[in-house]
Every structure is written in C-alpha cells, then in structure tokens.
Amino acid sequence: MTHFKYFKEKLFVESTSMLNIVKKNKTPFYLYSGQQIKENYIKFAKIFKNVNPLICFAAKANTNLTIMRMLGRLGSGADVVSGGELLKALKAGIKPNKIVFSGVGKTEEELKLAIKNKILLINVESESEAILINKIGKNNNKIISIGFRINPNVDAKTHKKISTGKAENKFGVSIKNFSSFYKKIKKFKNLKINAVSVHIGSQILSDAPYKKTLDVLSEFIKDLNIKLKYVDLGGGFGIKYTKKDKQVNLNNYAKLVYDFKKKLNCNIIFEPGRSLVGNTGVLVSKIQYIKKGSNKNFIIIDAGMNDFMRTALYDASHDIVPIVRTKRKSQEPIEFVGPICETSCKFIKYKKYQKIKEGDFVAITNVGAYGSSLSSNYNTKPLIAEILVDKNSFKIIRKKQNLFKLINS
To answer: Which long-range contacts (CB under 8 A, 24 or more apart) does 386-389 make?
Structure first.
C-alpha cells in the first residue's frame, strides 16, 4: 500500500489527509487510491510485456463502476461470472471483445445476454452448459465462441474456500472425463472452440502451482491435438496481507508463460483481480465503544461483517491502523470487533496497541478486493459509501445507501 503513508503521525492517502475526509464523510466508508490502482495495472502489464496477454480484470473482486472504468481506460478487459457483472463491465465502457464469461451455473438468460452482446468467450464448464449454448446458437442462427474450462487437479496451497483447481472442487471438467466431453461438443455445429481455460484458486503466494498447471496444460493440449486461439490462464495472484506473506514471483512466471505461449503459438488471457485492486483500499471506521472484558478489551467499531466479510468468511487477517498515530502504548490485549449480532463479526486481535479512545478513527487495510463486492444488508444495514482519492482531492464513487429506501424496498 505505497500510497497510504503517515505524515507527521497522520495517515494520508496520496496527498490527502484521512482526517480531512473523515470530517466531511460519516463512517464507515471504503477509501481507494486512484494512483495505486493505475500503478498496479501498469506494473502487471509491464511484467508480462513479452507475453502481450489480454488482461481481463476479475470483476467479482470489485464491481465499482468508477474503478472498472479506470481499468478499462488503461486497457483492461473483464472476467465476469454473472449477467450483472457483464452489464456493469459494458456500462463501464469495456468492449465486448475483451470480456470472458466464467462460472459453473450460468443461466439461460445470462447466456443469451452474453451471446447478444457478442463477448469474446464463454468458458464452458459442463456438457449440459455446452448443449444449452449450442441450442441458443441454433435458435438464433449464430455460431458461439467458447472456451472449455478444465480442472487440472492442482493444489494451489491456498484457503480451502478459495481453492478451485483440485478434483474435489466444483469447477471445470476433469482431464479424466474430458475425452468423451470433447468428442461430443466438437460435433455441435453452433459452437466454435477457441480456447482452453483454467483457474486454480485465489490468494496464491507461490509460482510452483502455476508451473505445475502449465505442465499439465502443455501435455493436455498436445494430446488433444487442437489448434487454439487462446489459453486463458486465470488469475489468483496473491498479495501481502501480513508481513509473513510472500508474494508470487511474477517475473519468473512471466518467463514460463512466454515459453508456453511460443510452444503453443496461441494468445494468453489473464484474469487478475486481487492483485490489481487488493492493496488499493482501506475501510475507515470509528471506535464506537471500548468494553472491558475478562482477559482483553473489546474495541467495538462501527464497521461490521456486513461491510467487510473476509475475516468472517475466510479467517482472513487484515491489519487495523490508527488514523492518528501516537507513541503511547497500551499494555492490555485488545480485539477489534463490529456491531453485527454474530460472534464472527470480529476482525483482529493485538497483544499491544497504541492507546486509543472512543471516537478515534481507524482503517482496516488491504480491502480493495472482496470488500465492497461481498458487502450486504445483513441486520438491515445500508451499504456504505465508497470514496476515491486522486492526489489531493477526493470524490464519492458510490453513495451510502439510504436507510429508508432500504426498509421500504
């Protein structure tokens, strides 16, 4: 988070003081750095420059229209997993020929939407889905561009809830079952097979699973003896949430992908999400109450698991930092918790923390991915605002949801 720094003990986003933003906006709210978003995309594209891939931002990571527009202007396409995400990508100005549609349970309505808008690829994940797409194509006298997603049975060594490339996971067609699957779908006259797709998981911190996947794909495509226009290698590149986390060596991976591309003579698609936006945002919150417990103090903030689900859903770790830093330390252990009526509405424990009081402001770090996009109205709470900083100015890019409209809807 290079654009979130302290200056004279006050936390700044780029050239803007968070205190100034807090004075004008009611907490909690998401706060993003526009410069960080741009730098992340440019850095990713530069690392894979020799590969020259089509970069399709995984929209599920953050569906804010302003952020999607920013990425689109930088050259990004979109990887979508619902009709809603597809419509958002189009509304953000992303061209249909840069959109791929993934996911195991696409409805007929969603498939018709994708076909109507002539997107680049629909990544098929089952024989039933292929039959349905072929039927839609036949009824509309169209030939549909598809990829087929395979499950390479590669363990990405990530959290079990975000592992997608093992045999036990629901995604893709197993290599074992693919032979009969392929024989059937290549006979379908309204399907054009343009790609193979693979995605092995999320928050991956080593290039070893990616190397293994490339090896599996190379052998698989060789045995298949098919000329492909694209190989969609997915995403899943992890970021540093804690000091212990080690990031994927993307430079090493770029060399492996370059060799893979040369050997197969195909175009590469990537679907990064977290690696483009994860470290671009914080969740700013106010300390509502401090409650003394039997062996720790509970720091109750006004942001809850409805605003930010990752800690409850994935046992994720996100540091919480003060908006104003002091050198005074408290000797008592603390736990940051939220207001939602669930024991799982909690964030992080500290053995020691600076002295804080009710009314102080804090920021949950690295929430740019799967923060706002996973938020909900649980406990009938309005969706919170999102704010974007550009150097020394800021603007609201999603207004806080109106409570009275929520309860009357």
So the answer is: 386/29, 386/30, 386/31, 386/32, 386/64, 387/21, 387/25, 387/29, 387/30, 387/31, 387/32, 388/32, 388/34, 388/66, 388/67, 389/13, 389/14, 389/16, 389/21, 389/31, 389/32, 389/33, 389/34
Active-site residue, from 56, 266, 341, 345: 341
Q: Is 266 known to be catalytic?
A: no
Structural domains of the chain sorted by starting position, each given as residue range(s) with its CATH number in brackets: 4-32+278-407 (2.40.37.10), 34-277 (3.20.20.10)
Query: Is this prediction's pTM over 0.85?
Result: yes
Report, as an integer, the average pLDDT of 250-274.
95
Residue 101 has pLDDT above 60, yes or no: yes
Tokens read off for 46: 């530069």
Query: Residues 144-168: pLDDT tens digits?
Result: 999 998 887 665 454 444 444 444 5
